[in-house]
Design goal:
By secondary structure, the protein is an alpha/beta fold. Among the domains are: 185 residues, FAD/NAD(P)-binding domain; 117 residues, no CATH class. The chain has 17 helices and 19 strands. A seven-stranded mixed sheet has the order 7-6-15-16-17-14-18, sandwiched between helices. Strands 9-2-1-13-19 form a five-stranded parallel sheet, covered by helices on one side. A three-stranded antiparallel sheet has the order 10-11-12, with no helix packed on it. Helix 4 packs across helix 9. The radius of gyration is 22 Å and the shape is globular. The relative contact order is 0.19.
Length: 514
């Protein structure tokens, strides 16, 4: 007879592990089921060529909340962090590389070599970020209000958020209300004049989205990323997973890998009673927390007659148009971009016009001939990712649509690889001759390997309507219409990326309700 648990968590990525630890620390008997042979999901470090490994699908760990690190005492399990966002080199086609660091004055001094106006604009920009950061963190690091049942408690919560906005002061409040709906191009054009600097700052607001720089509300995406960035993790995402795994075991969490969930089991009263694996083994529990995408949770793990028409309609219209591919390169030398080496992160973009041209083909189910590249060159010694003197280049490629008109197969992946290498060569001449191995993961590959619906790296687009009530109003507070079933993945508030907050806040909701 299968072992009974209080709660089963489906998915052993950063959010699933975070949820499991949060629950186990409150004396709940928790089981984590992971379909792959390793934990981590999109944060798992993997070998892609003999002797060469990446630190995870995604690169940026500056969104991991300090609150989680401290509460779980992850330092005790080997986690090491460094204050602030890591320095990133902004690349131009003219051969420039601007180091954008956590030090505002150092960055402003570097910008002044290109434009005194832009140096002043950067100080103003960062002062605005600092002013709104407490409000944004308060908004996104708490459970969202229940807008479907506006009683006294919910209205008081909304009032407190309104008062927090007012406490920014009239000038800052009016500036925030003005710029949040703007396109990131319009917003940054007001502050900067140098094209590649504007493009480099704006780029993360477009990652994982179906938008270009002239799309409305992309400024809101940029402000969220800037305000929520804190210390980053030494060793990248896989170092986070290693610490979370040890913390989970220490908290008493049972972990089962190579355990793909087949169905969430409901009893005669349509309440959760457990999870059945693909091999037929069943584990019982009155509560299941899914860190999978909403589509996988409701379409793959439940029977069609187990969800209402309203829920099915909401899932169907939840937008998850994946536009990101991953290219990993094994290189037999140390690498530089525009003559600058020693940084772990680089971004291309060059200008808003170039960025818009990169996005345009996605609207017509075509891949960009000159994509935006989010480049990670991890330090190979800690962890040991490549032979001494060699490099790993891990690249997130934007824009490569999941629903490619010609479909994703060897030929179209080769075409994508060639466009990436051509773009890369313009910033690092001769790099192609140094490549000794590679891996290309199309959005279709991301769906297959990581169960990312449509290959979307954030479990769904982070447009304004899918941020406020994420993923949709019926499940905006982690609980679902299926009794005992909760969401705790990146498809829930406050969204995607490596942050741990959907898992943490989802678990808090379970503890309140159970």
């Amino acid at each position: 007879m299968s072992k009974a648990y209080d709660i089963i968590v489906i998915g052993g990525g950063h959010n699933g592990l975070t949820a499991a630890i949060t629950l186990a620390r409150e004396n709940k008997k928790v089981l984590v089921l992971e379909k792959r042979s390793m934990l981590g999901g999109i944060a798992a470090g993997e070998e892609f060529h003999p002797g060469y490994s990446t630190t995870g699908l995604l690169h940026d760990t500056s969104g991991v909340r300090n609150r989680v690190i401290k509460e779980f005492t992850l330092e005790k399990f080997g986690l090491k962090t460094k204050q602030g966002k890591p320095t990133v080199g902004l690349l131009s086609k003219q051969g420039d590389c601007l180091p954008l660091s956590n030090d505002v004055e150092a960055t402003a001094a570097a910008i002044s070599k290109f434009s005194a106006k832009d140096a002043a604009g950067y100080r103003d920009y960062m002062a605005f970020i600092s002013a709104i950061r407490p409000f944004m963190k308060n908004l996104l690091d708490e459970q969202p209000p229940d807008l479907s049942a506006l009683g006294t408690k919910q209205l008081w919560g909304l009032l407190k958020k309104g008062l927090a906005l007012k406490r920014l002061g009239k000038k800052t409040m009016m500036e925030f209300l003005k710029v949040a709906p703007m396109s990131v191009a319009d917003f940054l054009n007001e502050k900067f004049e140098t094209d590649f600097i504007k493009a480099g700052i704006a780029a993360p607001a477009l990652y994982g989205s179906f938008t270009g720089p002239w799309s409305s509300y992309t400024t809101l995406n940029l402000l969220m990323l800037e305000c929520l960035a804190g210390e980053h993790i030494i060793g990248g995402p896989q170092a986070l997973i290693a610490a979370l795994e040890e913390a989970a075991k220490n908290a008493g969490v049972d972990i089962k890998t190579n355990a793909p969930a087949d169905k969430i089991v409901l009893d005669a009263g349509r309440k959760v009673s457990g999870v059945k694996l693909a091999d037929g083994e069943t584990f019982t529990a009155p509560v299941v927390a899914s860190s999978c995408t909403p589509q996988v949770t409701f379409y793959d793990l439940l029977q069609p007659n187990q969800i209402s028409y309203a829920l099915e309609h909401a899932v169907k219209h939840y937008r998850s148009r994946g536009t990101t591919a991953k290219v990993s390169l094994a290189v037999n030398k140390a690498v530089t971009f525009n003559g600058v080496g020693g940084l772990e992160f680089y971004r291309t973009g060059n200008s808003f016009d170039d960025m818009e041209r990169a996005f345009d083909p996605a609207k017509y189910r075509q891949s960009s001939a000159e994509p935006l590249l989010d480049i990670h060159v991890p330090t190979v010694s800690k962890p040991n990712l490549a032979p001494a003197g060699h490099s790993v280049i891990s690249i997130l490629v934007h824009f490569a649509p999941f629903n490619l008109k010609d479909g994703w197969h060897d030929e179209t992946k080769k075409k994508l690889f060639d466009s990436v290498m051509k773009t890369l060569e313009s910033y690092s001449p001769g790099i192609a001759s140094s490549v000794v191995g590679s891996e290309v993961l199309s959005p279709a590959d991301l769906e297959s390997r990581y169960s990312l619906t449509n290959g979307h790296i954030y479990h769904g687009e982070e447009a304004v309507d899918q941020i406020i009530t994420r993923p949709f109003p019926l499940c905006a507070q982690y609980a679902t219409p299926v009794s005992g079933l909760y969401l705790c993945g990146s498809g829930s508030h406050p969204g995607g990326g490596i942050t741990c907050m959907p898992g943490y806040l989802g678990a808090q909701t379970i503890l309140k309700n159970c």
